[in-house]
Amino acid sequence: GETADSRAVLVEVKKRGYKALTMTNVQGSTLSREANETMLLHAGPEIAVASTKAYTAQIAVLAILAYDIARANGKKLPFDLMPELARIATIMDSVMSQKEIFEELADKFLKESRNAFFLGRGMDSYVGLEGALKLKEISYIQAEGYPGGELKHGPIALIEDGTPVITLVSQPNTHLNIRGNIKEVVARGAIACTISMEGMEHESDSFVLPRVEPLLTPLVTVLPLQLISYYAALARDCDVDKPRNLAKSVTVE
After folding, report:
1. What share of the chain is helix, strand, coil (3-state, %, to 5)?
2. pLDDT higher than 90, residue 26
3. Contact, 197 vs 226, CB < 8 A?
4. What is d(CA 225, CA 132) in angstroms, rounded to the nearest whole number?
5. How far apart are the first and last CA of the chain?
6. Shortest CA distance to 143 belongs to which of 207, 225, 231, 205?
């Protein structure tokens, strides 16, 4: 709630006469004080520069907000949100308890690598961007995230022998397409680390997540990417909590 460019947007929004809602993990932050309303994330203190639980909490709070707006507008909703979020919380605990798997994946795919790619389709592509950001922030590996549909429009030229490609497969309507992307990069020498969801898994996948409502998959698909990034940084003797050149809040524009 202290980032300068976000505050600049808030100032402009209020100047134009619109109301502003701030979602923040820090009560009393600048953006919270200056907005009309505040929704607290209640994620607890996050000391590390790279945001993890605050990111996940924002997705959950935004999902609640979107769900309630839809219900207030009389929309017919395909699932009951709160029971699904409760089930997802249990799944998240289960994923975190298997962290040694992600330590092994980080050691296998990323410890000696200079670059990495993240692929996904639909919402998976956005989570891939977050995974790439986390990896480059704390391990200093050059990481890029791309939608699977854009792979052959340029990024595939960068794939060579031994390039790690981390792929998410959680969207039922595109999982066959992303499987085609995996085959394309493997055919060009990439080593594939695939995180899939139950019902869409292959025996060669690195980790299979329990199935959740497709609209809420980012809550669980981001966890393996965060953990892989964490263990890659440790394996490379990087300071996970205080990456070089970065600060928790960017207070200047």
Report:
1. 50, 15, 35
2. no
3. no
4. 8
5. 14
6. 225
H/E stretch holding 137 reads helix 123-139
Residues 6+ apart with CB under 8 A from 114: 141, 142
- Interacting residues of 107 by C-beta distance below 8 A, sequence separation 6+: 231, 235
For residue 252, the Cα-to-chain-centroid distance in whole angstroms is 25
Assign a CATH topology to domain 4-89.
Answer: Rossmann fold (3.40.50)
Q: Which fold has domain 92-235?
A: Rossmann fold (3.40.50)
* Model confidence pLDDT, tens digit, residues 119-170: 999 999 999 999 999 999 999 999 999 999 999 898 899 899 999 999 999 9
Q: What is the pTM of this model?
A: 0.92
**Same topology between domain 4-89 and domain 92-235:** yes
Taking the C-alpha atoms of residue 212 and residue 215, their distance in angstroms, rounded to an integer, is 8
